[in-house]
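TICKET: design request
STATUS: open
ATTACHED STRUCTURE:
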């Protein structure tokens, strides 16, 4: 009877657990927790890309030491991948661009994020939301690295160069391509189990 009561007491915690995603990369695995309660639309969007296999075989195409690493937009040949429609910016959710957090990449339009994301290497508070204005929107944080920050730091140490991505010159591209080989959910409902 006590066991049943204990299980019922734990049930709300289990149901409210944040989604977790594993990024298998050519540099090693990175596990991320997603803040569904703070950035529901952003997390749903990211998980749609994960579940569809969109991120499998994509590059970390922009790596800037002491700033961030960015991926999720180009295939292994440096060609831009077609994405779904942009999402609303949820940077006004109270989360800060601190070391190890994931945030959505975007253009100068605050509401232009699609699939590309970045991992902050340092606290980048200058990227945080300050106001609902063109300059103040910031970049929406929606998760954090829970395992594999050493892998992220190793990626950040890679030598970079300028090269063509989808026919346009791009800077800060790793000389040796770093790929997300597979992205998938961890946990009971994912069909995958964490081996930690």
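STATUS: resolved
RESOLUTION: sequence designed for all positions
ATTACHED SEQUENCE:
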């Amino acid at each position: 009877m006590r066991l049943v009561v204990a299980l019922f007491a734990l049930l709300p915690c289990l149901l409210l657990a944040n989604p977790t995603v594993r990024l298998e990369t050519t540099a090693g695995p990175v596990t991320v927790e997603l803040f569904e309660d703070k950035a529901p639309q952003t997390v749903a969007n990211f998980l749609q890309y994960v579940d569809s296999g969109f991120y499998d075989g994509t590059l970390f195409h922009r790596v800037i030491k002491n700033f961030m690493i960015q991926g999720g937009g180009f295939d292994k040949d440096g060609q831009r991948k077609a994405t779904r429609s942009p999402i609303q910016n949820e940077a006004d959710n109270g989360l800060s661009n601190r070391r190890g957090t994931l945030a959505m990449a975007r253009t100068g339009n605050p509401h232009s994020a699609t699939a590309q994301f970045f991992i902050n290497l340092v606290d980048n508070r200058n990227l945080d939301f300050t106001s609902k204005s063109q300059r103040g929107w910031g970049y929406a944080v929606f998760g954090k690295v829970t395992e594999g920050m050493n892998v992220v730091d190793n990626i950040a140490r890679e030598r970079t160069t300028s090269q063509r991505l989808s026919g346009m010159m791009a800077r800060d591209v790793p000389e040796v391509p770093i790929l997300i080989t597979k992205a998938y959910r961890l946990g009971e409902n994912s069909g995958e189990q964490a081996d930690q």
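CLOSING REMARK: Residues 17-187 form a domain with the Cyclophilin fold (CATH 2.40.100.10). The chain has one domain: 17-187.
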